Batch of 3 targets.
Target 1
Amino acid sequence: MVEPVFWPRLRWRMRGAWQWPAFGALTVVDALLVTRLPFQGDGPDTAGALLLAGFFNLVAVGVAAPFAGMLVRRARPDLPRMIARDYAGTALLAVVSLALLTGGLVHRAGLRHEHAARAAALLAAHDYVLSSAPHFRAGLAAPDVRRLEPDSYRVCVYGRETLPLCLLVNTTQRPPGIVRDPDRTPNLHD
């Protein structure tokens, strides 16, 4: 008498038990996506990406999956409530991964532009120091760069003096526009 009830229940559990294995695997995949293809800025470090991916996936499983499970049950009333929630949770985890991938791909062009502008600012500062302030040449190995706004940077180069040479570089011009900053205070990083 126990066997007829056991096998159908086991079958449903095996069909619907993908949410938590998918949660673990997709949290790692999402963390890799966020570090390799950030959807905002330069992206977080590995620990931050893992926390962010875990948060997104927990919201999908804990908040959205119960409501999506109700919609699945409307479409398939034969499914037990728990199985419908697992199906919905697994699908939502895939949606989160797809959204992170899409966001990273969309942001990729902007990130490339930002890296190119930063490289142009560093090259312009390098050329300026070599031509106009050669006594700061030693500081070219480790310039201090701070982004002020899109396409505008403040580059400070240290030399033998206690205060650095600071340059304001505008990369929207070709070649980049450089203005010597009268304030020689070093850049303060966040």
Note: Helices lie at 2-16, 19-36, 46-75, 81-132.
Target 2
Amino acid sequence: MPMFFAIKGLDELTPERHRVATIGAMSLHREPLCDIYVAQRNLFTMTDTMAPVRAMGACLDSLRAAPAEPYTDINGALLYAALSLRGDRPAVRGAILVTDLDEDRAPGTTPATPDLHGLCIDAYMLVTTETAMNPALLQTRQVEWERRLTMWGARKVRIQNALSFDAGDLQRFFRTCEGQ
């Protein structure tokens, strides 16, 4: 929920659209759990300012209720994000990932190659039992995914541990990405 409020706090970037999906076995073939629109506010239009807050709460409930996935197709999730964020209107376009960065694709699937040109990618790594047992994996995964995201054309990439989440940092990341 703090990520929602951090993004919602970027008033200068409205209108905004937030799609939230889980990373699963076939991430390219998923429907978003949530699709939240935040309208641009002005003096002449009546807007329900609490509607996005209610939608974010409902989205959080949907995320908590989503079943655990046996596989993780991070490449497919990034391709899905890239395809759904394309547009001609000047706008900041970006994706926030919360993941252990351990891609474990289902048998018989091939990895996607997302075109991330024009997108800002902010990833928050989760510590798992595996990385707690082998902490060097955290750094290895971070370096590898930074390389991949940059190679696929992301405008700006930031990967950090989820424990260090700070709403102000997230807002600054997207504000600085806008000007690149």
Note: The first strand starts at residue 16 and ends at 20.
Target 3
Amino acid sequence: MPELPEVETTVKGLRKTIVGLKIKDVWTDLSTKDKRQKETVANPKFFTVFRKEVSGKKILSVERRAKNILINISGGRTILIHLKMTGHLLYGEYKKDPVNRFIHFAITFTNREKLYFSDMRKFGKITLLDTKTAHDTKHLNNIGPEPLEKMFNLKMFKERLSKKRGGKTKTVLMDQSIIAGIGNIYSDEILWRAGVNPERKVSKLREIEIKLMFKAIKKILSKGIDFGGDSMSDYRNIHGLPGRFQLHHQAYQRTGEKCRKPKCKGIILRKVINDRSAHFCSIHQK
């Protein structure tokens, strides 16, 4: 699933390509009666309304909130896109890569270019919100602070952790109501760098370990953005190209390999924690 660095990479690409463009039309081949998708373009009735409301509107800005992409358009409306497990956006003449062939939604602009949504598993979410109240809706109102913002300091990090003192550290890091944007890949890499075992309960963390985790969050997420996201699976940027963070993994998907920490003789292990895979060093992550 695309996490904060992948979504931020996508948003940066969209800011450079679609801001200022006008929507001519939209298309989808999605169609479901699933009540959980009643307010998304996958629902035919909702799509009819969606199409009418966005056609002719101008793209004003693009922003990110956690793993959500917010495309603000004229008329006081916002298109919210959540990539979920296998979704990614593609613009214009993108690279023809096998993972880019699952097109299920498209926006056509008046300049004849298109923004496509490729989603192999069809779990992605596309809906329409009022811009003024978007952050108060069920889609965004229960999300924790953004970890790369200046206001997210060590004090705030401790306060957020204290809300789930009985939880296992990896699970708490991935809880979107605690901190925004961290998922399976980056939690593994953060904990490897901080030397913390993913099964450790938050209440058992020492002061120095919390400080190391805080520094690792800032470092690892920034590094993920610098490398254009992680394409170990099927994430691609808006030009259809893979990111490079997967070339720098220290823990994630390295099961059975030697730990890369200098002088550490550990082996990377894999263990399922609360239904999610965790990868960690058998020696230095205590």
Note: The two ends are 27 Å apart (CA to CA).
